[in-house]
Amino acid sequence: MDNNDIEEMFQSLGPVAIKRMFGGKGIYHMGRILALEVDDEILLKADDVSASEFEAAGARRWAYEGKKGKAVNMPYWSVPDDAFDDPDIMAHWVRLAYEAALRADK
């Protein structure tokens, strides 16, 4: 996914910084990481407060295979499908991701 597409997805928050990391990209707003781009997929940050909302919307939690073949769940979730067709819905999900990023700093 190119940076212009990513910036458009997050435009409701304002400017984002996009940095290369781990073969993908980290997406930051106001100095806080709120999303990743991995294999051309955007993954939004969630936490104990917001993860259930992502799950209820059909989002998938990102996990990678750790040592001994065990799945390691990360605090990032796929973007719910309906958000790609509606900027207002996308704004809701990116706002939840930013709120989770703010809570992670506390």
UniProtKB/TrEMBL annotation:
Domain TfoX N-terminal: 8-101
Signal peptide from the UniProt entry: none
InterPro entries: TfoX-like, TfoX_N
PANTHER family for this protein: PROTEIN SXY
Name used for this protein in its record: DNA transformation protein
